[in-house]
Amino acid sequence: MTSLGRAAVLNDLAVLIAKLESARPIRVAIDGRTASGKTTLANELAECLRDKGREVIRTSIDGFHRPKVERYARGRHSAEGYYYDARDLPAINALLLDPLGPSGDGRYRTASFDLHNDLPIEQDPQFAPDDAILIVDGTFLQRPELRGGWDVAVFIETSEHVSEQRGIDRDTAHLGERKPHVSFMPVDIARPLISISACPRLLLLPTQFSTMTILTSLLSGFVEMAGFLQYREIPDIHGIR
Predict the structure, then answer these.
(1) Which secondary structure element, helix H or strand E, spans residue 82, and what is its range?
(2) Which residues in 148-184 are b (16+ Cβ under 10 Å) and which e?
(3) Residue 202 half-sphere exposure, CB side, CA atoms within 13 Å?
(4) How far apart are CA 111 and CA 189, in angstroms?
């Protein structure tokens, strides 16, 4: 994808999100495999929305790990351990998503755990204005325990091979040596609620906003299928880094 094409896609996505009407913050998930380009896309989307005058809360779920003794209980490289034991899901809901939801008070926190020191932390809460947009990146954001906390979900699909190679390269640059990289979970667990094997690369999953379905007419690139909005103008997401 060219830089101009990528900018156009980001602008269309930002427009779609910014047009949503809500009396509270809009909660956006950027989901996908490890090393699929989630953080880069989330940062670019946040900047695009800020350029449009919106206040953006930009964070990830990396501040909500569980203690090492729990994360590694099934083994350091266990796929099941990564899915079931890595993150403190109740804390993500209670501290970040629920406070910005329909019954929340707008006082949120972006972390509950210091991964480096393997210790819990207590952040002072921050207050989100009603027109803010929360953008969170991470893996397995559409799992059942978190699914109800998103108003919009974007899933980035990339091949297992590309994701694995990026992960190895990233770990090599960070750690100074090549570490083993594992396939964390079967693809059907990581994917959204529909099969995406034959779908476009960028998917929007409407959850709380029933009005999402009528927005398909606003952007010609989006079409409705079984309640999902799919963007058809991205030939290959592998260029995202």
Answers:
(1) helix 79-85
(2) ebbbbbbbbbbeeebbbebbeeebeeeeeeeeebeeb
(3) 25
(4) 25
Angle at 158 between CA 27 and CA 190, to 5 degrees: 55
Residue 183 has φ and ψ, to the nearest 5°, of: -80, 115
Structural tokens at position 10? 């980001």
| 2 three-class SS | coil
Q: Are 42 and 32 in contact (CB under 8 A)?
A: no
What are the structure tokens assigned to 217, written together? 């007419």
**Residues 123/176, Cβ–Cβ less than 8 Å:** no
Enter the DSSP assignment of 210. Answer: G
**pLDDT tens per residue across span 118-140:** 999 999 999 999 999 999 999 99
Full-model pTM = 0.74
Region 103-124 average pLDDT? 97
155 contact partners, CB below 8 Å, separation of at least 6:
31, 32, 142, 191, 192, 196, 202, 203, 205
CATH assignment, 3-60+130-239: 3.40.50
